[in-house]
Structures are given as structure tokens and as C-alpha cells.
Amino acid sequence: MSESDEILFQVWGARGSLFAGGADRIAFGGDTTCFGLSAGGGLTIVDAGSGLRAMGEAMAGPPPPVEIDLLLTHLHFDHICGLPFFEPVFSEATVLRVWSAAFERDEDFRAALERAMSPPVFPRFRDWDRVRLCTARAGMPVPLAMGGTATPFALNHPDGAQGWRIDRAGRAIAIAADHEAGDADIDAGIAKAARGVDLLVWDAMYTDEEVAARRGWGHSSWRQGLAVAGAAGAGHLLMTHHDPGRTDAALARMEREARAVHPELTFARAGWRRAI
Predict the structure, then answer these.
(1) How many angstroms separate the CA atoms of 226 and 232, rounded?
(2) Which one, of 205, 156, 165, lies nearest residue 185 by Cα?
(3) Beta strands of the chain (E only): which ranges?
(4) Nearest to 230 by CA among 196, 206, 268
(5) Count of structural domains, the chain
(6) How far apart are CA 90 and CA 80, in angstroms?
């Protein structure tokens, strides 16, 4: 594998549920879920949280990629709120494909997304014609403009959610944010989908004590992530979906504790990059 085969992975938003502002929430960032993967001159994005706005701003200047694939894990608002603020949407040079594995038909996907961005909850998004909405099927890979494929797999989360495995030129990344560990079948499915990946992104919103008190809320702990990563034989482990109430100091303590157990582990923060 050559350097040109690399996937550059970058965190644009790692908070969960709600944007988190304040002087004590700067180091890890306050924006909600958004990850960018670039390779071969192409771009793939996972989730359209508020971090997508910052990503679009960073792309200002040179022409954006002609084709972008945006993979949604689910349609909770913290994962789609950045879409109408993403500058490349408004460029005629950009083709944006948005993928979901939660619907049987493209029309149903479009109707659900449009409901989320309609008055009186949100001003009507007027640029839907620029967006191509596409449905995927669990376990079936879809082609990416940057090369390679993305394959959805089931997560355990209220209203349903899907993780994504991205494969390109022998490199692989699996994203399992917004998942509550504990369902043996789904956990085994994630481990299978993430087998041998170079990077596993895991929902670590809660501590072990909080997980026990918040069953059914749809989130996990870093220790639960270690168990799945071990079963999958995953390389590096990236913890995400930080509680909006968690300060930088608290997240740094959690990261130190986790790294003492598993050195190949990082708590996601805005701007974190890794070449895969």
C-alpha cells in the first residue's frame, strides 16, 4: 500500500446530543458529531452534526470536491443540524449524496429529512434539489466517490441507528457512534463489521456508573468499547459522543484512565487527524 492509498480521517465534531459551549469545553470542542474522510481527491463525511458547518467553512476558497458522500448514522437532530449550514451544498460545482440505511425507499428518507427541517421547527430548507438522497441496505456496500465502499451495520439506539464501515485500498475504518452496548447479537454484529479495522470510532458518552443508571438511553462507556474492539481485532480506538456536560478536565481524566488500560486509545476532539 502506498501513501496515496491513505485515508485522512479528521474529527469536526465529537459532542453528543447537544452543542456544548463555554471556556471549560474548548479543548475537546463543542460541536456535535461530524467526521471527514478524504482520499484520492474525494471526500466522505459521516454525520451532519453542527461540526459540519465548521467543515464547510474550512473548505472555503479552493473549489470543493465535485462529489461528496455523506453517511448518516440516524436522523436525531444532533446528527443532521449542520446540513443546511454546509457551504458546499450551495455550490453548483458540488454533487452531495446523502446516504441512510434507515428507510426502504429514497422517497421515505427525503420525507423524514424534510419534516425535520420544516416550519415551525426550522425554516424550510430551500436547496433540496442540490442534494441526492440515497438509501442503503445493512451489510451491502455502496460505492464512494473517493474510492472504496461504505457498508452499514446495525447499532442499538432509540429510533434505530446504523454504523458504517469504510474500506479503501486495504485500509478500513468503522464508526459505531450512538450505540448502547449490551445486546449480545448487535454487539457481535459490530465486532464482525469492524473486524481488522485500522480505526474503530466508539460511543463513550457515559462512565460505567452512568451506563447502569441510564439503560435504554442508547449510549456506552469506553470500557465497553474495549471489549468490542478486542473481539474485532481493531487497531486504534477513538472515543466519541462526549456528554455535553463533560468539561475538558473531566474528559482528559477519562482519557488518562482509559489509556492506562489500553494505550492505543484516544478521546476525540475537534481537529484530531489521523492518516489511516
Answers:
(1) 10
(2) 156
(3) 8-13, 34-39, 42-46, 67-71, 95-100, 131-135, 142-143, 149-155, 161-168, 171-176, 199-203, 236-240, 265-267, 273-275
(4) 196
(5) 1
(6) 17
Do residues 110 and 133 touch, judged by C-beta distance below 8 A? yes
Q: What strands, in cross-sheet order, belong to the sheet with 149-155?
A: 142-143, 149-155, 161-168, 171-176, 199-203, 236-240, 265-267
Q: What is the pLDDT of residues 59-114, one digit of tens each?
A: 877 766 779 999 999 999 999 999 999 998 888 888 999 999 999 999 999 999 98
Q: Is the preceding peptide bond at 120 cis, omega within 30 degrees of 0? A: yes
Please compute Rg for the chain using Cα positions: 17
- 150 within 8 A of 173, measured Cβ to Cβ: no
State how far the Cα of 248 lies from the Cα of 266, in Å rounded to an integer.
Answer: 14
Q: Is the pTM of this model over 0.90?
A: yes
Integer CA distances (angstroms), 217 to 44, 135, 164, 193, in order: 28, 26, 21, 23
What b/e sequence results for 3-14 when a residue is b if at least 16 CB atoms lie within 10 Å of its CB, and e otherwise?
Answer: eeebbebbbbbb
**Contact of 235 with 194, CB cutoff 8 Å:** no
Using the predicted structure, report yes or no on whether residue 2 has a pLDDT greater than 70: no
Alpha carbon distance 38, 107 (integer Å)? 29
Q: Residue 123 sits in a domain of what CATH number?
A: 3.60.15.10
* Cα–Cα distances in angstroms (integers) from residue 84 to residues 112, 120, 238, in the given order: 15, 16, 27
CA-wise closest residue to 10 among 243, 190, 238, 192? 238
Backbone angles phi, psi at 233, to 5 degrees: 65, 35
Q: Domain of 64? A: 3-275
